[in-house]
Design brief:
The chain has 154 residues and is of the alpha+beta class. The chain folds into two domains: 75 residues, Ubiquitin-like (UB roll) (Roll); 68 residues, [2Fe-2S]-binding domain (DNA polymerase, domain 1, Orthogonal Bundle). It contains six helices and five strands, in the order E-E-H-E-E-E-H-H-H-H-H. The longest helix is centred in the C-terminal third of the chain and has 15 residues. The protein is globular, with a radius of gyration of 15 Å. The protein starts with a strand and ends with a helix. The relative contact order is 0.16.
Length: 154
């Protein structure tokens, strides 16, 4: 079986996996990083979103063989102590209901704010439209994003 060296949460991990194994399963099953969730497996819900080289990607559709020499950040790597502005904003706004989609929502938000520290409501709406929430916490998500924007721009 092939071996891959991956930079996940600023640590180098060597995994043995088939080159076409989805990154999601490498993260969850081989690295025991279970914060990234399986939602649909077909890039329709966003629950599996992680950051790769600063961009939000669906880990269910990214093959591990394409992840070498990339910087991958999961929800566990956003901050070890919950101090990232997005994580703090999520708590302040009371976003999670069931919480299942929230890691993907937060990773999409963090990637967006890394590229644009003051996005318009239209950019927020467009960016976040790729993440579904079965509980319908969209208004609280939007509120949390605005709280994070304020914190980042202090």
């Amino acid at each position: 079986m092939p071996s891959f060296s991956l930079n996940v949460n600023n640590k180098i991990h060597t995994v043995e996996a088939e080159a076409d194994m989805p990154l999601l399963w490498v993260l969850r099953d081989l690295l025991d990083l279970t914060g990234t969730k399986y939602g649909c497996g077909v890039a329709s819900c966003g629950a599996c979103t992680v950051m790769m080289d600063g961009f939000a990607i669906y880990s269910c559709q990214r093959k591990v063989g394409t992840c070498v020499n990339k910087k991958i950040i999961t929800i566990e790597g956003l901050s070890e102590d919950g101090s990232h502005p997005v994580q703090k904003a999520w708590l302040q706004a009371g976003v999670p209901q069931c919480g299942y989609c929230q890691p993907g929502q937060m990773m999409t938000t963090a990637a967006m704010l890394e590229k644009n520290k003051n996005p318009s409501d239209e950019i927020i709406r467009s960016t976040m439209s790729s993440n579904l929430c079965r509980c319908g916490t969209y208004q609280r998500i939007k509120e949390a994003i605005h709280i994070a924007i304020e914190e980042i721009n202090k």
